Amino acid sequence: xxxxxxxxxxxxxxxxxxxxxxxxxxxxxxxxxxxxxxxxxxxxxxxxxxxxxxxxxxxxxxxxxxxxxxxxxxxxxxxxxxxxxxxxxxxxxxxxxxxxxxxxxxxxxxxxxxxxxxxxxxxxxxxxxxxxxxxxxxxxxxxxxxxxxxxxxxxxxxxxxxxxxxxxxxxxxxxxxxxxxxxxxxxxxxxxxxxxxxxxxxxxxxxxxxxxxxxxxxxxxxxxxxxxxxxxxxxxxxxxxxxxxxxxxxxxxxxxxxxx
Length: 260
Description:
Elements: H1 9-25, H2 45-50, H3 52-55, H4 69-79, E1 83-90, E2 95-97, E3 100-106, E4 111-117, H5 118-121, E5 124-125, E6 131-132, H6 134-138, E7 146-155, E8 161-172, H7 188-193, H8 195-204, H9 215-235
């Protein structure tokens, strides 16, 4: 047991799942997952969700509305041609409904729903060539685990862009339960001291204020702002230097006292 992981029912269940995954697939920590490049950009979830050639086929619906059968047929006829390989973290616990399941993958910026059907993944070939029951593997996944999926795009009856999974690969197990996905973390001190928790919780948070930014978006904007300021000043002949006067190191102890 790792010293920084609390021993409770949830962590024990996750460790048990990890041991069963090792028995099923062998290597539970593969060193790579090759994503496709069929959308013109590297196939991150964000690139797919925002790709113009894809989004133009997704029906634009009013809140609570559902696409018509004609809209679904036209959208899926076009979207089924997009084969994708994407990877991400399970941002919600898997919802298994009989012989199928829905779950969302997140890359920290965007989320994309995946649809897994038992008959499609029962006979899967792993990276080392062994044949496994993919549905059994899917049943061992927990909220927060990383997986890579291979499939084609489609729109569900509710109008949500999704991936119909034909095969998937286990990438890493989350041994610690994820933060509250509805409200994020409430302790600002925890967010400042453990930024990895803040980044995860912020990306999974569902209830947001209008125009509220995620922690990642704040970092990205700050980085772009500083970069643009440096470019502007550099273009006008300014030189960036660090001197002892301006560094954050406190050096008052070496100063001579002022005497009168």
